[in-house]
Design goal:
Elements lengths: L1 E5 L2 E3 L5 E2 L5 E2 L5 E3 L1 H17 L2 E8 L6 H8 L5 E6 L8 H15 L4 E5 L10 H9 L3 E11 L2 E7 L4 E7 L2 E5 L11 H7 L4 E4 L34 H12 L1
Amino acid sequence: MDIVVAFKVVPDDQDIQVAADRSLDYSKAKGVVSAYDLNAFEAAAQIAADQGGSVKAVTVGGSSIDDSKLKKNVLARGADELFMVADDSCESLDAFATAGQIAGLLEKVGAYDLILCGDGSADNYSQQVDVQLASKLGIPVVNAALSVTIDGSNAVVVRSLEDVVETVSVPLPAVVSVVPDIAVPRIPGMKDILAAGKKPMNVEPASSVAANTVEVVSCAAPEQVARKKQVLDASSDGAISEFVSALKAAL
């Protein structure tokens, strides 16, 4: 079983600063693996352990993602090999252009049976790269996966929709995006990190980059609303009901 995990490197949201004009300052935010993709790495590692085979990781981004610590972190999570396009021309790609870069990168990866990814990225959360990647590769795609099991040449996927949980069987190769509940990401130990440093890391510049199809007009933090500083006395009659009503009104 040859599994590929497509992941995204995003700015660490704990280090993103908001300026007075509500613009976002990423200058002090280091790149980290998108939180949703960590679940995909763990799911891939578990499937590979059950079925036998390999896990390869692929990503695309600006030149800053070519970071030794970040690459070791990826390979310490069960991946056997890393393929990365790190180029400043890929700094702000939309889902369409990102899918094109990953599709090209998969040609370097070689054979694959299953491509896993998170159900969205921790920054834009567009939920589009999985479907656009599958479209470019001409293979099936299933999203919102709660679990993935392999049955011969098919993947059996339990997926969670708004009002139902359904089970579908899809022929391989396929792209599957997983929800966070699929698996709890492991915390790499020192042994995993040391072993990661010896695994193959393939980093290359972009040979060509497709134009974005989405234009970002602006990106700003929401306006801050002054707190009401309303304190309720829990011992008074109706305080709980008043508190619940206030919460509902604020949502």
